[in-house]
Amino acid sequence: MSARTATALRSAMHRLLNGRSERTDGRLTKANLGREAQISHATLHRAKTILREWETAVAQTHTPTREPVTHTAELSALRTEITTARTENSRLRRQLDAAATVICTLHHENIALRDHLAEQGTVIPLHQSS
What we know:
This protein is an all-alpha fold. It contains five helices and no strands. Helix 1 packs across helix 2 (30-37) and helix 1 runs parallel beside helix 4. The radius of gyration is 41 Å and the shape is rod-shaped. It starts with a helix and ends in a 10-residue tail after the last helix.
């Protein structure tokens, strides 16, 4: 491995470990080390001494872990909202069923009344006013 490659790798390692990557997303991976140093994958893996240094440095680096975010209040509010919506939905379905039943009954009564009027024939007034 050339001195130039070693310098490029150490410089890239320094940038990545300090969070100032120039050519990568900053994750501490071997692939990013090679990209940051602008060397090939094969050249990177031939630099065994520098890779051991890299692995040691990465192991010692404390990457902050994000605390799991709890959304219990939001989840509780959303569950309450869902329950309320379902209750309202059930009430509206019952109301719709009742309205459909009334409409059907009125429709059949209307048909029966029309049939009854048709059977009676024409109405002729007996007394006409002059």
